[in-house]
Each structure stands twice: as C-alpha cells, then as structure tokens.
Amino acid sequence: MSTPEQPQTRSVWKRRAVIAAGVIVLLVIGYFVATSFLPRWWSHRVGDQVGGTFRWGIFWGLVYGVLCTLVPILVARQAIYRQLGWRGKGWIVLAAIVLALPNLMTLGIAWGSGSGAHAGQRTLDDQAPGFRGATLAGFIVALALAVLIEIALQVRRRHSAELTALRVDKKIHDARAD
C-alpha cells in the first residue's frame, strides 16, 4: 500500500536526477570547450594584442604574469584573514580564480597536450613571441612580491602589537608614579 507522500518523493528524486544529468552534460560540454576552443581563442587574442613583435610579447607577458598573479593572491588572501562565512570566502576565492584566468589559460596552452593547446602554442610562437616566457617571469616576480608583502604585513602587525603593549605599560607606569 502506498502513501500519498511516495509520489511526491518520487517526483523530487526524478527532478534531482534530471538536474544532475543536465549538470553532467554541461560539464562534459564545458570540458571540450575548455580544451579545444579556449586555447585557440586566447592565443589569438594575445597574438592580436602583441602584433608579432618580441618587445610587445615580453611587455604583455610581464603585465599579465605580474597582474594576474599578484592581484588574485591578494584577493584570495582576504578569504584567509577576513571574518567571513564559508559562502563569503567561496565568493572571494572564485573572484581570485576569475582574476587569474589569463595566466591559467596561458598555462593550459604551455602545458596542454591536446590539439587546442598545440594550436595555441603555434599561434603564440608566431604571433606573440616571448609572451609565454615573459608570463612565467612575471609570475615569479609576482610570487616574490606577494611573499614580501606578506612579510611586511606580519612585521607591521607584530610591531603594532608591541607598540600597543608599550603604551599600556607606560600608562600603568604613569598611573603608579602619580
């Protein structure tokens, strides 16, 4: 004998199954787009920007390497030090990933083994010489800058705490002297 709740439960599970199947199909399509279309598209955008010269390839590689590494690191750092819930931290990390996408797409071209990555490599070699190497150099510079910024902030925090303790000690000393 079935209860009136069973048909509702079945329809909920059917709806969830359809949604899950749709998400899986979208993920598979997204994977093929990401591995085939995006490397070609990104390499052509960079090639158009660089115009086939080493000077502009190195310049734009350094710009993308530094900015698309340093800014996402500083944004992601906010998820660690801010008093936010998991949802807020997730949005901050997602924003950092979006800001790092140019570097991630260049990395996908440089290390990728698919036909889209190989086409992107050929395009960057021809239309944006020096871009990949300069992006790597900019990435390394940005990592070093991020480490230096973090060290400076930690030293500042420690000195601020020490200064506050000294001020409290001085007030206590002054109060006893009176």
Automatic annotation (TrEMBL):
Transmembrane is among the record's keywords: yes
Q: Where are the transmembrane segments?
A: 17-38, 58-79, 91-111, 131-153
Alphabetized UniProt keyword annotations: Membrane, Transmembrane, Transmembrane helix
Keyword Transmembrane helix among record annotations: yes
Q: Source organism's superkingdom?
A: Bacteria
Name of this protein: Permease
